[in-house]
Design goal:
Blueprint lengths: L2 H27 L5 H23 L10 H26 L4 H8 L2 H12 L6 H17 L6 H31 L5 H23 L8 H25 L5 H8 L2 H13 L5 H17 L16
Length: 306
């Protein structure tokens, strides 16, 4: 493994720990701040931060004469990822424990795979089917009993959110095909955020003004969520994908449930039961299997057959 790849993996794990810390901090803030208020204000902060980075620091510009199809894809990415997913996933965090929330969100990889069958006409491999089955068994183990109504509502919100993110993942790949990868990742992320985030902020201003937020810690968490979890993480993730393969990043990304649990236990006082630990392990195994492309476990993390 080259030094460049080691550095990329360390960078990925670092940003994932930052993301997990953000989830825990947001869970704390939601005890004082209405979840929808936090959602649209954090997106507003992220819009400003990412716009400054893309247009002022990198001095990139939106290409002129983009086809209508490209704008439709950008609108879809913005709407489903930043308007739908950002709001529903924040609302769900208010109803679920941080670890449970992160665990369920990680199923977005399986939903993305399922959608790709219809959107991108990709057929799953036997390992991908097996991985999905293992993860579903893990889900059943994690929830030995039917959750209470509030948790069921949180789970439903997560389902809506990950459907939006999964659709976005597939549409982003279609956009890359249509533009032949000629459109900058920074431009795609920024424009999509301005479209979808702008819609969310507009709804917030119309129906949630003035925002009910107070306390230095809550404001700090708000800026952390906007600048680190949205603007910074999107920028670093695009940079990391220049070195790591997408399936490698996906496997590493699933570790957020581990970091969230390790942080939520001392900070939020959450606990993990034995069945929840087993469920998490099965989900991680399932995600690893889903990433196998050519039917060989040696394909994971770029290890080649001799």
């Amino acid at each position: 493994m080259t030094n460049q790849r080691i550095i990329a993996i360390l960078q990925t794990l670092t940003i994932l720990v930052f993301m997990s810390l953000g989830t825990v901090l947001i869970k704390l803030a939601l005890s004082d701040v209405p979840p929808f208020t936090f959602a649209w204000l954090s997106v507003a902060v992220g819009m400003v931060g990412l716009s400054i980075y893309t247009f002022a620091i990198r001095k990139e510009r939106i290409p002129t004469g983009l086809p209508r199809t490209v704008w439709m894809y950008l609108f879809a990415i913005g709407f489903f990822n930043f308007f739908v997913a950002r709001s529903t996933l924040t609302l769900s965090l208010d109803l679920l424990e941080a670890t449970t929330n992160t665990y369920l969100v990680n199923f977005v990889g399986f939903v993305t795979m399922g959608m790709s069958i219809f959107i991108l006409k990709e057929s799953p491999t036997i390992f991908q089917i097996l991985g999905a089955a293992v993860a579903l068994v893990g889900l059943r183990v994690f929830f030995l009993e039917i959750p209470p109504p509030s948790e069921l509502r949180g789970g439903l919100l997560i389902l809506v959110g990950i459907l939006g993110v999964a659709y976005t993942n597939n549409i982003t790949r279609k956009l890359a095909i249509v533009t032949k990868n000629q459109l900058s990742n920074s431009i795609i992320s920024t424009v999509a955020l301005l479209i979808g985030g702008g819609m969310l902020v507009l709804v917030g201003i119309l129906f949630d003004w003035p925002p009910q937020i107070s306390g230095l810690a809550n404001f700090a968490t708000l800026f952390y969520a906007g600048l680190v979890m949205i603007a910074f993480s999107m920028t670093v993730w695009n940079y990391i994908l220049r070195t790591l393969r997408s399936y490698e990043a996906s496997i590493l990304g699933a570790s957020t449930v581990i970091w969230t649990a390790l942080l939520a236990i001392p900070i939020l006082g959450e606990t993990l039961t034995g069945n929840e630990i087993v469920g998490i392990v099965l989900m991680l195994v399932g995600l690893a299997l889903v990433q196998v492309r050519r039917g060989q476990l040696s394909d994971l993390f770029g290890r080649k057959r001799p």
